[in-house]
Design goal:
Blueprint: H1 5-9, H2 12-28, H3 37-50, E1 53-58, E2 62-69, E3 74-80, E4 99-101, E5 107-109, H4 116-132, E6 139-146, H5 154-160, H6 163-166, E7 172-182, E8 186-188, E9 191-194, E10 196-205, E11 209-210, H7 220-238, E12 246-254, E13 260-261, E14 264-273, H8 276-296, E15 304-311, E16 314-316, H9 318-332, E17 336-338, H10 350-355, E18 359-367, H11 369-378, H12 381-384, H13 397-413
Helix pairs in contact: 2-4, 2-13, 3-4, 4-13, 7-8
């Protein structure tokens, strides 16, 4: 691989203006999950122009581009396309001002607050370089553009729509994510990398009454308050201090006025865990606590506990992660790192699982290196460095894009076979 990567990546200088323009265009025009028609269209058009055989509309807006280049391994690289309902506050000249009509009929702002525009741009850059340097490798490269990662629906939608029969079966699946590390940074991790995520909606029932007559009521607001407090003991008192987990109550809705005790309260929460045993324990404990508090409050009806979203854990396979880490160390030198465990979640692992193949998923930095170093010196990284999903999240264009293209290309070439040397 090492002697071929410089040959393929030599073309990066020539396509850099194209990639930077593409990134700014994607950033200006974000689209929510399963609505990524423009993004998917631009991706499909680009892949066709590079010489790929393209299939689009998979799972709604998913796209695959296949470049068969002789006998050899098949490598699939995936990028997610969707944005978030966030109003951008970066002040960039190419900032999004896009809005969409939400389910309730109101206008919602839309922003690429998670960096999926970086992911699409880097995958298309890698796809173009491999297409322009077919003399350096053999095998098949599959570029996959996935919808609706943020809602945890996109990978499943593509699989349900026949992805495994519409794409060559890969030997390995590769993916990356831009994170709030210094731009130029690449980080791999064997085993657990991203957490599983489960979002629950809990409806607690009571008996409504006048606010001045609590004795005639069963107050679901009080029950909900007790549940919220007691849930915090799951991580702090039921799990070992060495077992990572996060439980966050993000929403409580109840009542219509200050002097009315309502009939019900709705709690929405999110759980992050890294292994099946911990995941099962935490979810079971939530059910136990909710039911017990409702019984203690004399609730007239059993609570309803609904799982409204679920993401699998991202657990990198050992052999492909080792191979990519070695390739990154050779190519990036001191910029190649072992990345920390992350509490974010992804649905990407469902794709290699559907094919029954291994995968590896890594992180790249997107923060201005000088700004990051200054924050480290001042001990203000948490305060001064915007993270994914922040309205201020804005990866610097370079060297972020160069790093992402190089990482995908180097990783792909760690599998794609070399062309045999010509005999004299």
């Amino acid at each position: 691989m090492s002697d071929r990567a410089p040959t393929v990546l030599a073309g990066l200088d020539g396509i850099r203006p194209y990639l930077e323009d593409l990134y700014e265009d994607l950033h200006r025009h974000p689209e929510l999950g399963l609505r990524e028609h423009r993004t998917a269209g631009k991706g499909a058009e680009a892949l066709r122009s590079f010489g790929y055989e393209v299939t689009d509309g998979i799972g709604g807006t998913g796209v695959i581009g296949v470049l068969a280049n002789g006998d050899g391994p098949t490598v699939m690289a995936r990028a997610d396309m969707d944005a978030l309902p966030v109003r951008e506050r970066t002040g960039l000249p190419y900032a999004s001002t896009a809005t969409v009509t939400g389910p309730d009929g109101t206008e919602q702002p839309v922003m690429h607050a998670c960096g999926h525009d970086v992911h699409v741009t880097c995958l298309l850059g890698c796809a173009r370089l491999l297409a322009e340097h077919r003399d350096a490798w053999r095998g098949t490269f599959v570029a996959l553009l996935q919808p609706s990662e943020e809602n945890g629906e996109g990978a499943e939608a593509m699989i349900a729509d026949g992805l495994t029969s519409r794409s060559p079966r890969p030997d390995v699946v590769l993916a990356q994510h831009v994170l709030p590390y210094p731009a130029g940074y690449v980080g791999t991790r064997t085993g657990s990398f991203l957490s599983a995520a489960d979002s629950l909606r809990i409806t607690v029932h009571g008996r409504g009454a006048h606010g001045s007559m609590p004795q005639a009521a069963v107050d679901p607001v009080m029950t909900a308050a007790m549940i919220v407090v007691r849930l915090q003991t799951i991580v702090s008192r039921e799990l070992a201090a060495t077992t990572p987990a996060v439980l966050t109550v993000g929403s409580i809705h109840a009542g219509s006025g200050p002097n009315v005790i309502p009939d019900s309260a709705v709690i929405e929460l999110n759980v992050r865990t890294y292994d099946d045993a911990t995941r099962t324990h935490v979810l079971d404990a939530i059910g136990r606590i909710v039911r017990a508090e409702c019984e203690a409050s004399r609730s007239p009806k059993a609570p309803e506990i609904e799982r409204i979203a679920s993401f699998p854990p991202t657990v990198n396979d050992e052999e492909p992660t080792r191979r990519v880490a070695e390739a990154f160390a050779a190519h990036f030198g001191d910029d190649a790192h072992t990345i920390d465990l992350q509490t974010a979640s992804e649905d990407m692992s469902e794709i290699p699982a559907a094919f029954g193949v291994p995968f590896t998923y890594w992180g790249i930095g997107g923060t201005d290196p000088e700004r990051y170093a200054e924050a480290v010196r001042g001990g203000t990284v948490a305060e001064d460095i915007p993270v994914n999903h922040s309205p201020f999240f804005a990866p610097v264009i370079q060297p972020t894009l160069d790093t992402g293209v190089r990482a995908l290309t180097v990783a792909a070439l760690a599998w794609l076979a070399a062309r045999p040397a010509l005999r004299a």
